Amino acid sequence: MSIAPEKMEEGQKLSNFSWESVSMNVKVGKQDKKILDGISGTLRGGEVCALMGPSGAGKTSLLNVLAGRVRSRGNVKVDGSILLDNLPISGSALRKRIAYVMQQDILTPTQTVRESLWFSANLRLPKSYSRKEKEELVEKTLKELGLEKCADTYIGDDMIRGVSGGEKKRTCVGIELIMKPKLIFLDEPTSGLDSYAAHNVVMRLKDMAAHDGCNVLCTIHQPSSEVFHQFNSVMVLRSGKRFYFGPLSGLSTSLHAAGKGCPNEFNLADHVMFVLQTESSEALDKIEMQMQEATPASQHPEMPHDKSVMTMKLEGAHAGFFTQLAALTKREFQNVYRDKAGLIASILVPLILNVFFALIFFQVGNIDRSEWTAQAHFGGMTQVAIGGMFGAAQPLLLKFPLDRGIFLREYATQTYGAAPYFISKSMVELSLSFCRTFPISALQKCIGIALLSANQRYVLIFWITGVAAASTALLVGCLAANPEVAQQAAPAVFVPQLLFAGFFIQSEQIPVWLRWAQYLCALKYGMNLNIMNEFGTDVIQDWPVQKQAMVSGLIENNNINPDHGWLYAGVLIGIIVVVRLLSVVALAKRAAAFF
Ligand SMILES: Nc1ncnc2c1ncn2[C@@H]1O[C@H](COP(=O)(O)OP(=O)(O)OP(=O)(O)O)[C@@H](O)[C@H]1O
């Protein structure tokens, strides 16, 4: 594969990553819980270090603190310093330089394995990489991680049949490794893999570390002997404290010196875990001291690395706004048409509901019928508008909360910004809601509304009202911490819209001091336009006088000014623009506050 020489050079600079006296305390009730207790260490460029310890020892917490993903906030207090080539580093500067493979596999279910790797390569590699180089890197990574056979299989989830758990895990690893990062943190990258697959992953890490000079830190559970002996060094934690840190070879000899040597044919990693969980706390203190005394000073990895000369520079600029937007929009459309069950449900449910409405409100708007009443006519219109609002807004309440895991992972790794992410989702949603307006013409004819007035205008009002209501739902989704909160907030989005729509209570009957709230309700403006479109003077002038009288109060009692049609349309468009801008800000702020 041909990689430009300057990229090779950049890849081969060695860096030292070290941390001193890292502590983490969490206030649980009135008690202080010590999660990490003054841990220090150094990762040498070109080496792979295993982070081990019994469950709850603090491995993930240490990894998160070192990756800049946990900071002092609320009941969490983090202390200590993190240094890259002896210079302090923290926050986003630190996160930018670290490829972090999380314990959970957070992937887009409707993408194939190859598409997931390509998405990462396309958006995260510096612009200096050509498309061909990116494609070659994707193929190389697929091959090295043994993903070739499932390269074109969907990732999958509960609803879509996809790749196995091990293949998912390797895809997560590949998404990060494709970046040729300098600092690689992996939280249990081998869990769920068989020992051969785990061996391949660790070998790939080792190759990368040796070839590109990167620093690799990797929490690991129950590694096989073959896997464990690939690591250059190991840090063993015990109840938030460092129990051992040094070369792998030193672990065996120092345990032996402390009288806890690993019996022949036993797995050393299993043996350490066994010692840590069977000895008393006092006995472990003593073993630890004896191990430290037995470890020659030269074996302590805190010694500065003699090749540690470079402070890592930021890579070149990543993909631009439009590349991000195009990739995200493509993925969003794939999400829609590949999720067949979701797609069918989103077409079928509104269709069934519309047939139901059509049967109930059949021809209520036809003034030639003797049963015609103004109330039923207005009721039919309101029902269609309310149905349109729910149809457009309800699915969007959960749009961002459900995808938040993927967004946070990709946002944290600077794959893209909040704006292209939001715009891509909005564009797909606008296209879908536009498609959904077509059946409304048929429904409208069944009900007999807007027959006399402009049909296209009615459909346009229906669409814009839906989009405006959907904008409010999107904002709530962006603000909500999780899908449950978004769902609980649904009544706050929908109930005021219903109250101000003019059907249950007319505007003039609402207390004056509360009327301001209608200006936030898209449905109110949609209904204003609908009423003008349906019962405007120019429309009803040919109606029988008695029927004209029955609807004449509607415009007045709803505080509608017939000359303000453009103002109402402007308010709807204003709601769409302002609320969506607020949503992008909320999304970015939430993501920034997460770490
Ligand atoms: N924010 C927090 N609030 C309260 N307790 C916490 C918090 N973060 C971590 N802990 C606790 O700190 C301890 C260490 O957690 P951590 O996830 O780092 O352990 P671990 O070694 O990675 O465990 P495992 O191997 O099971 O994943 C656990 O007892 C955990 O419950």
TrEMBL record:
InterPro entries: AAA+_ATPase, ABC2_TM, ABC_transporter-like_ATP-bd, ABCG_transporters, P-loop_NTPase. SUPFAM superfamilies: P-loop containing nucleoside triphosphate hydrolases. It is a multi-pass membrane protein. SMART domains: AAA (SM00382). The chain crosses the membrane at residues 341-364, 376-398, 460-482, 566-588. Pfam families: ABC2_membrane, ABC_tran. Residues 17-264 form the ABC transporter domain. It comes from the Eukaryota. It is found in: Membrane. Keywords: ATP-binding, Membrane, Nucleotide-binding, Transmembrane, Transmembrane helix, Transport. This is ABC transporter domain-containing protein. It comes from Durusdinium trenchii.
